[in-house]
Amino acid sequence: MTSSGTASEDAAPRSADVRRVTKETEVRVHLALGRGGPVSVSTGLPFFDHMISQLGTHGGFALDVSASGDLEVDAHHTVEDVGLALGQALRSALGDKAGARRFASVSVPLDEALCDVALDLSGRPFLLYDVELPPDSGPLGSPSFEPQLAEEFWRAFASEAALTLHVALRYGRNPHHIIECSFKAVARALREAVRVEGGDVPSTKGAL
After folding, report:
1. Are 56 and 63 in contact (CB under 8 A)?
2. Shortest CA distance to 114 belongs to which of 191, 180, 188?
């Protein structure tokens, strides 16, 4: 595996480019925080592309993600590695997090579904994912995205971004709505957490 990430020295925008290569996948990510802008996602999984696009659009990021992977084996490798690369890009773009708001929480509805998200740019990776899907939930899109892969994505993302992330479904019935609701909720929480509102590192330790 090879991986690289660089953060821009210019705080506006804070940006990063990451390339992650393994025997199973190749992922490239460009991320710029707090500027809006174009969002382009191509992973070979149309439903997953739609979900990652929610992060850029509702997070207020400029985002370009491309991935090629062994989808003939399973979508798991591609989904997980995109999560790892995106998490690394976020952590790199945030730098020392000076001035960042750090904490955010939000409730987001999508038709009958409602998701709660709370996060902390803590430097301590942790995921609590309390999203119970209907028992008859089947794959989404073609090639197929298995709904349970959403949890694997968030685990990988939180690990590399080094953030504390709680995602909870309050209620919902449609698997598409439930998953999309969770992605939009994380995006809106990230939009608030990364917002610069001061100059100091938001921690009594002086570092995150």
Report:
1. yes
2. 180
Residues 136-147: tens digit of each pLDDT: 999 999 999 999
| Domains, the chain, with CATH or none | 2-193 (3.30.230.40)
Look-up: residue for tokens 């996060």?
119
Range of weakest confidence among 134-138, 177-181, 199-203: 199-203
Q: Which of 82, 98, 88 is nearest to 12 (CA)?
A: 98
Q: Which tokens is 73 given?
A: 């084996």
Q: Global pTM?
A: 0.92
Burial profile 12-22: b = 16 or more Cβ within 10 angstroms, e = fewer: ebbbbbbebee
Backbone angles phi, psi at 203, to 5 degrees: -160, 140
